[in-house]
Amino acid sequence: xxxxxxxxxxxxxxxxxxxxxxxxxxxxxxxxxxxxxxxxxxxxxxxxxxxxxxxxxxxxxxxxxxxxxxxxxxxxxxxxxxxxxxxxxxxxxxxxxxxxxxxxxxxxxxxxxxxxxxxxxxxxxxxxxxxxxxxxxxxxxxxxxxxxxxxxxxxxxxxxxxxxxxxxxxxxxxxxxxxxxxxxxxxxxxxxxxxxxxxxxxxxxxxxxxxxxxxxxxxxxxxxxxxxxxxxxxxxxxxxxxxxxxxxxxxxxxxxxxxxxxxxxxxxxxxxxxxxxxxxxxxxxxxxxxxxxxxxxxxxxxxxxxxxxxxxxxxxxxxxxxxxxxxxxxxxxxxxxxxxxxxxxxxxxxxxxxxxxxxxxxxxxxxxxxxxxxxxxxxxxxxxxxxxxxxxxxxxxxxxxxxxxxxxxxxxxxxxxxxxxxxxxxxxxxxxxxxxxxxxxxxxxxxxxxxxxxxxxxxxxxxxxxxxxxxxxxxxxxxxxxxxxxxxxxxxxxxxxxxxxxxxxxxxxxxxxxxxxxxxxxxxxxxxxxxxxxxxxxxxxxxxxxxxxxxxxxxxxxxxxxxxxxxxxxxxxx
Length: 574
Fold this sequence. Notes:
By secondary structure, this protein is an alpha+beta fold. It is 28% helix and 31% strand.
C-alpha cells in the first residue's frame, strides 16, 4: 500500500499535538476544582472548589441525615441518624470527587462522567440501642385464635403469628443501606406461626359459643334444681387449639362453681368438722358430720354436652359423700384433755379499751390449733374496725399516747403471750411495748398493731391446743388446753441500764397525759421442768425506753414543744 503523503502525516501530527496542548492547559487550569462530569447521587459537582463541593454534598443528602425511615413487617419507625450513631463523612466524599487524577479531568473535558459514593460512619452500639426501641414495637408473642365473652356475647379473637426483629440483621441492613435507600430500610423479622385459623375461630364461635349461651341448663342435683345460666357458662367456657388448629371447648370446673356461688350451697350439705369446747370446765368433742356435696368435675361432665343441644336443656348430677377435715376420731386423738397454761391480767372497769379487750377475746375464744400449726393473732382477728365491734381508745403511736380504733388490745396480746409462756409452747414472734406499763409483768408482755406488729406462736406440743378466753369487768384470762409437757417457771432478773425520763409538752387535740417512767433493761428466763427436773432454759431480753412525762398543752414561757403529731408505722395498741 502506498504511504500517506508526508504533508498529510505532518498535518495530523500537528493536530494531535495541538489538542494535547489544549487539554494539558485545561487540566492545569482546573486543578483546584472537581473534574467535569463528577456527580454524587445525580448531583453535578464538576467545576466546584472543595468548600462548594462539600456544601453541595451536604445539601444532596440532607434528607437522609434528618430522619431515616425503617420498616419491619407492618411497623414503620423514623430513626434520628445522629442518635442512632449514623454520621455523614463529607470530607471522604469530596476526596473521592477530587481523587480521579489528571486522566479523570481529561475524561471530564471529553464528556465522560464519573459517579462518586456517599460516605458515612456507623456506631454499632448506638445503632443497636436505637433499634432496640423498634424491636420493642415489633416483637410479639404468638396468639392463638379463640372465642372470649363480652358479658354473655361471644366475640371472635383472630389468630396472630408471633414475630421477632432480628437485631443483628437489622444493624447490618441499616449500616449497608442507610445512605443509599430510596425508601425505608427493610429490617429482617423472624416469624412464629400459630395453629389456629380465622376459619377455625369462626367454627368455634357459631358452632359452640353462640349455642352455649343461648339457653340455661337445669341440673337436677339430689332432687333439687340447680340452674346454670348463660352468664355462668360465659364465665367458665374456655377454648384451646388442638394439633390441627381446631378450637376445643372445655368448661373450667373452678370457674363454673365460682360463678354459681351460693346456688351450689343450696343443693348440697357441707360436712361439719368436729369441734372441741368446754363443758363444765372439761374439754369435750362435738362430733363431726359427713356431708353431701357437689363434685365439680361431675357437674362439668353433665353440663358441657348440653350446651349445644336445643332448649329446654336438662342434666342430672348425683351428690357425693364428703368427709369433714377433722373427724370425731381425729379430734379425740388430739389429746386435748387438761390445762397446760393459763394467765390473767387485770384492768380498771368500764373504759373504752375494755370493750376492745373483751371483743378480741371473744373472737379468739374456742380456737383449735392443730399440731405443727402457727397461730397469728393478726391473722385470726384481722384489722380492728368498728364493723367488728371495736371502739376508739388510747394507744401508743410514734412514742405518744393517741386514740385509735382498737386501742387496748395489746393487753389481750400480753395475756395470750403469758399463756404461751407458761404452756411451754414455741414463741415465734412477739414485740414488747416501747415503754414499760406497770399493769403487765416486766419482760413478759407483747403489743400488736395491724398488720405490722403481730403475736405468733407455734403449737410444737405434738397434740392439739384449744385456746379459751374468759372476761370479767376487770380482767381477761387466756387458758390453753392440751396435753401437759412442762411445768414452767419465770425468773425475772434485776432492772439494769436505768434511763431517766424527761418532760414533753404535746399540743395535739388527742393528747393523753402520762406521768412518766424511767427506762430500763430486764432479762426474764423461762425454765422448763419435767417431773421436777429442769430440762432447758430460754432467755427473753427486753429494753424499755423512758416514758416521757407527757403534758397536754403548750410549754410555759414559750419553750420549745416536745413530740410532734406525726403518725408512725410503729404504732402500738396498749
